[in-house]
Structures are given as C-alpha cells and as structure tokens.
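Record passed on here:
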Amino acid sequence: MLRNLKLGAKLNLLLLSIFIIIVFLSGLLISKILEKNAEQVITDKAFLLIETMGSVRNYTSNEVNPELAPRLETEAQFLPQTVPGYSARQVFEDLRNRPEYRDFFYKEATLNPTNLRDKADEFEGNIVEEFRQNASLKEKVGFRSLPGGDIFYIARPISVSKESCLRCHSTPEAAPKSQLATYGDQNGFGWKMNEIVGAKMVSVPATNVFERARQLQIVVIGVLSVFLLIAILLINLFLRLTITNPLTKMAQLAKKVSTGDMSVEFKHNSQDEIGILAASLNRMKVSLQIAMNMIESESEN
C-alpha cells in the first residue's frame, strides 16, 4: 500500500505519525508534571492553613483561656471558646466562606476527645499512632479513599505542650464543673504532658487537586498541537516547493524526452541536490540528442 503512495502522501503520513507520538508522549509527561505542580500548590496552601490554625490555637491558649478560665467553675454550661481546638475550627469554618477555601476541611482528629465530634476514625487513628510511634515524624501527606471519592490530606501531630491543658484532660476530679455538666466524665481524660493525643488534618477532595492540572494540560497540549500543525504545514510547503514540485517537473521532462521530444528543458537555479539532478538530466538529454543525431547521420550515409 505504501509503495503506491506518492512522495507527498508518504511524507504527510510520516509527519502525522510523528505528530501523534509527540502529542501522546508530551501529554503523559505534561500530565505528570502538572499534577505534581497542582499537588504542590494545594500542599502549600494547606500548610499555610495548618500554620494559621496553630497560631489561632496559641492565641486562644495564651490570651483567651486565661481570661475565661475562672468562669468554667461558675457557668452552667462549658465555654468552648476556652478550647484552642474549638477556636481553630470556628476560624476555619469562617474561612471556608471564601470561594478559594470552600472545598477545604479541617479536623483535629483525637484518640480520646472530650467532644466526640473530634473523635478520630480508624484511618485518622492510624495516622495519630504513627505520630506517637515516631517522634521524628512531624507531618504526613497523602491520599485517602472514601465512599464519596478520594481526598488529599495533610496531617500534623497535636501534643499536650502546656500544663493548662491537663486541667480539663487529666482526671474528672480536676476538670471544671461546667465541663462535666456538658460533656460528662467519660471522655477526654487521662492525657499526659508531652503526649501526642491527636492530629491536625486539612483535607480537600482529590478531584480539586487534579482539576486545575487537567485544565492546564488541555491548554498546553492544545497550544503544542497548534504549533506542531503549523510546523507540519510549513514543512509540507517547503518540501512541495523545493522537492516534490521539481521532481514532478523532471519526471514530465523525462517522459517527453523518452517520446523523442528534445525541445523541453528543465531549469532549476539552486545548487542543492535537486539542482544537481536537474543539471544532470539536462546533460543527459543533450547527450541523448547528440547520439540520436549521430545515428541519423550514419543512417543517411
């Protein structure tokens, strides 16, 4: 089949094959690069959020808690504003009202929390245990599969770093009365100083991580395809003007010469391979004409 195709068709077939291979391989490479870049962008934003929540926790612990702590013994209900984790979560929920953070989620997953809302599930509990077993592990990043889809998460350990935390989490006897009235005496006790009790976790649906990468991938591949098509058109135009058209004319000249028409001549001004071939063809025509004249002269004699 290829043997019957013209040179231009064969060239276009070759260029089309190269185009498909380049777009396919570039698409795979670009996809990986853009996915890594999108993941890094999300990671940087999540790390910033965790750092911010850490600052909120410190502010609550150092500034808010000392002011409200005396009221914990007199209030009928516990004041959650004294808890650093509560403040961090409330600030984060307010932050989620902004479109760029709407899909982010924050949880202080705790093995034995006072408020069961913060109870770590099995997956989160395993992460906390990793932090407990490996003191040098300061953060963990990865993907988690859920029924609703995969999520990308970043986790950092929560440790008991201040004595004030033990007031509410050491024993029920030491806990404020309002805390016991609100949450009971079964959960959130037995914590020890410097113990890792949970993990701060920021998560976002994995589809959001790669959506931007896919959009950029489509744009980049589209631009690359346009430039490749332009290159193919320019190569076709160049080859048509410099090779295929001259070869077609030389083939027509050779056909006419073979039928005895010696009046034709092919002119090609360039000194490239086509020009050399054209000059050789013209010399061959002249030599053939001289030979034929000699034969005719001998025949007349």
Observations:
- The chain has two domains: 2-17+216-300, 39-205.
- The beta strands are 105-110, 140-146, 149-159, 196-205.
